[in-house]
Write a structure and sequence with these properties.
Layout lengths: L1 E5 L1 E2 L1 H19 L3 E5 L11 H10 L3 E3 L11 H6 L18 E5 L4 E8 L10 H11 L5 E7 L3 H11 L5 E5 L9 E2 L5 E3 L4 E4 L8 H10 L12 E10 L6 E8 L1
Parallel strand pairs: 1-3, 2-11, 3-4, 6-7, 7-8, 8-10
Antiparallel strand pairs: 1-12, 5-6, 9-10, 11-12, 12-13
Length: about 260
């Protein structure tokens, strides 16, 4: 089985590029499941029903979120309605939406879990404990992929080692910069610290550079806008063993 995981889609430019290249890449790579982080897919920040629809139309089976998921209230109802539109599972009880989805293909089922880190971020429930709870609830599925939306690289790697042998793969999101440490851990869990982003190449994490410079130099509030120009889609392809559910190959992708 092949699972393609795509980094944070940034704004309408990122959505447009995803729609342009993802269908072709799914065909060429013979992708079975596609997971896309969409928490920044709305222009200005957050995710809207329209940007979520664009990502699904491009070929995503599941959309994951992060710390910006709830920036736009328009998405709240959609999070409750659509079981394949996720937000971090370790948010407080009563938060709209859910943090795990199960894709049923008949001959196999794939659990997708969305978690958020707590180091240098909001003080949420422990992602390690939340993962244990969700795996137990799902009956310790053979195929399970985790999007860990976190700031600290050490926290991402620690959770991957904690889950090694119990999940198929864990990919990090949030920093928008693809890391070159794709690997298979000793017990067969595939891992990459951060999968990168889908958006403008000449940008500061998708934002116009001059706006990021202004914010950092003046320390004053600045309204960010998505940069112009050529876009790229960052992703990672995990090839899973059909019998064990563990990763047998990891490949970084940029299109």
């Amino acid at each position: 089985m092949k699972v393609l995981c795509i980094g944070d889609v940034v704004g309408s430019a990122g959505c447009a590029h995803l729609q342009k290249v993802l269908p072709r890449m799914k065909r060429e790579l013979a992708v079975d499941i596609c997971v896309v982080n969409g928490e920044n897919s709305a222009d200005g920040n957050g995710i809207l029903p329209q940007s979520a629809a664009a990502i699904f139309a491009a070929g995503a089976d599941v959309i994951t979120g992060g710390n910006h998921t709830f920036r736009r209230r328009e998405i709240y109802e959609e999070l409750e309605r659509n079981e394949f539109l996720l937000r971090p599972a370790n948010l407080p009880d009563g938060t709209p939406g859910q943090g795990m989805a199960v894709i049923d293909r008949g001959r196999y089922q794939v659990a997708v879990i969305n978690l958020q880190g707590t180091v240098y971020m909001e003080s949420l429930a422990c992602p390690f404990d939340t993962l244990d709870t969700l795996l137990a609830e799902a009956g310790n599925p053979r195929f399970c992929v985790v999007d860990f939306h976190a700031e600290a690289t050490a926290e991402k790697k620690a959770l991957a080692f904690y889950a090694d042998g119990r999940i198929a793969a864990l990919f990090g999101t949030h920093t928008h910069v693809a890391t070159a440490d794709e690997q298979i851990l000793p017990q067969g869990t595939g891992f990459i610290t951060d999968v990168g982003m889908t958006g403008p190449v000449l940008s500061c994490l998708g934002v116009k550079p001059e706006l990021s410079i202004e914010k950092m130099r003046t320390k004053l509030p600045v309204r960010f806008a998505v940069a112009d120009g050529e876009c790229a889609m960052d992703g990672v392809l995990f090839t899973l063993d059909d019998k064990t559910g563990r990763t047998v190959d990891v490949q970084r992708i940029r299109v």
